[in-house]
Amino acid sequence: MDGDDKVEELKMPDGGDTEIKVSESEESDPTVRAQTIDELHSLQKKPTTPRGSHPTIHSEDQRHTQQLQSISASLASLTRETGPKIVKGDPARRYEVPRVSHVPHHLLTPTIAVSDSALKFTHVLYNLSPAELYEQAIKYEKGSFITSTGALATLSGAKTGRCPKDKRVVKDEDAERELWWGKGSPNIEMDEHSFMVNRERAVDYLNSLDKVFVNDQFLNWDLENRIKVRIVSARAYHSLFMHNMCIRPTPSELEDFGAPDFTIYNAGQFPCNRYTHYMTSSTSIDISLARKEMVILGTQYAGEMKKGLFSLMHYLMPKRHILSLHSGCNMGKDGDVALFFGLSGTGKTTLSTDNNRYLIGDDEHCWSENGVSNIEGGCYAKCIDLSREKEPDIWNAIKFGTVLENVVFDDHFRVVDYSDKSVTENTRAAYPIEYIPNVKLPCVGPHPRNVILLACDAFGVLPPVSRLSLSQTMYHFISGYTALVAGTEEGIKEPQATFSACFGAAFIMLHPTKYAAMLAEKMQKHGATGWLVNTGWSGGSYGCGSRIKLSFTRKLIDAIHSGSLLDANYKKTEIFGLEIPTEVEGVPSEILDPENTWADKDGYRETLLKLAGLFKKNFETFTNYKIGEDNNLTEEILAAGPIF
Ligand SMILES: Nc1ncnc2c1ncn2[C@@H]1O[C@H](COP(=O)(O)OP(=O)(O)OP(=O)(O)O)[C@@H](O)[C@H]1O
Ligand SMILES: O=C([O-])CC(=O)C(=O)O
Ligand SMILES: [Ca+2]
Ligand SMILES: [Mn+2]
Questions:
Q1: Which one of 164, 331, 447, 565 is most buried, counting C-beta atoms within 10 A?
Q2: Annotated region Disordered: where (predicted)?
Q3: Considering the entire predicted model, what is its pTM?
């Protein structure tokens, strides 16, 4: 052999004249079997493997038609003739055979007239995969980039946080009777008609687009109390965010999905109409419990969807005698469960993500007769000043599939600078919960042994850890205190005290005492211990002292989990009457009593009294409420506050 490849000419068996060159010395054909670039692309992808045979009677086609009709019904205008013509798939990919559906006439209420909008197709991108959503975001949404670790960096637009003042609930007869209204309540009223105006506005906007994203997903890992949600949105960012944050159905669960229990219409940047009754800005987030719907206009901040659904759970679950909680949750190797309550930024995600324990969830849970269950399928971590050393699990979760909101990165390598606050201080990462290596799947656990209330006290007067009696736990749970620093500019600023009932006043729907009574009952029944942990300042207020080291807080929390803190020696603090340990392993004893850490003793006492006064004033609104079956608990709770 001279080394030349031996080439044979073959005739196609069908008599075609195509020539194929076969090389003996090479394993495969060096030229591609495509005539055009489109043909080449068509070879690139094989269809997703069939979802397997299914025991139900429906054929694949019937199921598909039903699914399209259900989506068309969701998107239907309530005033025009039919639901929109729905076609699945990206409008840019014209080679796909369109499968069209629209809601049959008889299923829709008042017939008015055919309009141009009924003649157009609405393309639906249904439960796309993260890879497909990345492509959509990068092609069509400004501000979308892949970071150096593979996350999808996005911008949420003008709003980089939630807008509680623009969140409204329809006050019909049932809602008026059942929900908490008035001072302190997060439920700002609107009437049904105005809701319908906004709903129609959102639906019209969504149908006017080339395409919309639809997610069908679940809430709550407790299968008996699982809620089916549909999210219709205009952006791939929103679809990927919810893909990560809600529970992802398996292919067969998706086939059986049927009609959702609740639907979100997220029109994102499209504003509400200021001439609509009740509207006070161009942003409106509206919930109708009767219609089982939520409408979002004029904000693209994705947290509105997450927390809107959380509000819904705060209504639905107590009806089933299940307590909904704004808390993180993890479990030790021995099955000991801890809940972490706290307002935004106090450490729920940071402290529930713990290398030595199983993560059940970082933000929203249910406590039922069977134990605890996570409501969500993902985590939503703050990433300002995130570091690999201090929070390794969160750091490592920021990879392909994760949505990174409003972060800043360098233009070439796309390395994120987590210290950069140029867009906002509220930078966030949303990732599926299984990105945390020691996740507990399914995300459920037994009854909690410890209930940890987190406060980031920028006044620096609350002890780093204290053990609470049941009535103290209730007092602090109803108070829902934290104090963060006022601004982000240089210079000393007064800390800003915030009180948010049940550590989540923005999300509760019933009166806080309803949730408090349920918590007291459950803690008593299952023998859980309450703790107050200050993740904020030590050694003085903001400006003088400094934030307590995360490593110290972790040691204190370790001692709670292990049970060793129960056996410590305690002394009682003045005014707040908190039981504080005199020694905890791995933590300098002198910081356990905040009075020791203040150089200015008068300043300490003054600040302590000031904070106690703020607690007292805040609690006045609750003094007239009866908690539990008799009034005893109310009296005890009142007595568990600061005394001075
Ligand atoms: N001692 C400490 N304990 C806890 N967190 C600390 C401490 N010191 C600094 N931090 C920082 O505080 C932030 C706590 O935010 P985290 O995401 O845990 O809030 P969250 O309670 O989950 O809020 P949200 O409900 O808004 O998600 C993190 O950025 C963390 O790094
Ligand atoms: O809702 C958000 O934007 C983040 C969050 O978890 C909270 O504020 O409690
Ligand atoms: Ca969090
Ligand atoms: Mn939260």
A1: 331
A2: 1-67
A3: 0.90
